[in-house]
Amino acid sequence: MKKFLSLLFLSLFLLILLPNSISAASKPSKIVLDGQELALPADVKVSIIDQSMMIPLRVVAENLKFQVNWDQRSRSVTIQQNAKAMMLTVGKKEAKVADQLVRLDTAPRNMNQSVVVPIRFVTEQMGLAVNWDNRNKTVYLTSPPQNPDQSKVPNSESEADNTEPLTHVSQIHYLNQQLVIRMDGQVTPKISTLANPARIVVDLPNTTFGALTQPLDSAMMGKLDVSGQPDVSEVRYSLFSRDPEQVRVVVELSQDNPASYHQEFIGDQLIIDLSGTGSDPQTPVSSGDENERKIVVIDAGHGGSDPGTTSISNKHEKDFNLALALKVQELLLKEPEIEVIMTRDSDVYPTRTERVQLANSLNADVFVSIHGNSVLESPQATGTESHYYQRSSSKQLADAIHKRLVQAMGLKDRGVKNTSLQVIRETHMAAVLLEVGFLSNVSDEQAMLSDTVQYKAAQAIVDGIKEYLSIT
Fold first, then answer.
1. Mean pLDDT over residues 88-94, rounded?
2. 20 within domain boundaries
3. CA distances (Å), 405 to each of 317, 325, 385, 415, in order?
């Protein structure tokens, strides 16, 4: 009997002490690369070990298409893609990248008769952006954009090697008038205040999301549940920029005027205290321009599983929409009086309802949806047209953009039309949907797919937005 009790006690003891990573490894998971879910074998899981995402080597070799060489004697693996290569060793928190030793948060290890490696480290070294949706247990990988602009190539080897490692945000909380952001390193936040509505904006440079415990949607955005917090009406967060990477957290206040704040790092946590009781509280100095910053939502139509229409040369509308939307974003980011938000900045598909909800939840000032037209049975159809729905503010915005867009595209003027379309009907602000040209027309398509013409169109859209907002 004593032997039986001893064995029972030992079994319970071991169960209590089992690492959390074992239970995490049993949860179903997905990997999405550039908007497409990878077909993983049924026995392949994404494990969370010490807050790091780990995947088996077979996924690296078979699904991510990297070249993998395993050395059983040294228990090391070399992962290579083109000229990029790294070597990792089981049990060691150091990796060799381009003959340089790099520290790892979590060492590779043997698990379930397979070697698992940190997916974030491996893929980021290969140039991919990584985000983790903890709610859906999904890893999102995004390939670097193919930019033919040679002006962005580093001028020297020293410039190319001067890239700082990214800092990863793993938790965001708001409680008792304190915004708490947990990261795996320290950055210098850029904090500003905005009015109408009053809000505090926290920008974290050179930062992206890690194994975030809060949910992210397909556009890399999310909100905290702030019910029961009377001083704030909303706390939202997003991957505000991908090049360079930057996380933004916005605290929308219930009061009319932005509160004072005190910031400090405690360990790996950045704390923004809005209670006014912290040591050395400070009220950020904002110019009149910042207080009047307008929110502009740019919507690249379709995306992901919804390709939109097909051009006469069999190209997808979604790709044109995104290419032009990103150029508009690039230009708007240079406008100090405008805060630009994208409904998508990669090949994903937010539903039309989600796009509307995003713009309305932000209380945006302007919503612009970008599309390409098509009438395959009538390939002679050509021209640019703009759509609004009923509101006089939307008509004013459409007129301002349309006259410039027609001139920039050099296509037939098909006019400004009052049309009932969901994304401009259900949004609460000035909203317009642009049909830039006909992808089903040979001449229109040639102009629409030209980088030079796209930049002209993007500038026209930006100038129209600025005219509507009375920004000089």
1. 87
2. no
3. 18, 14, 9, 11
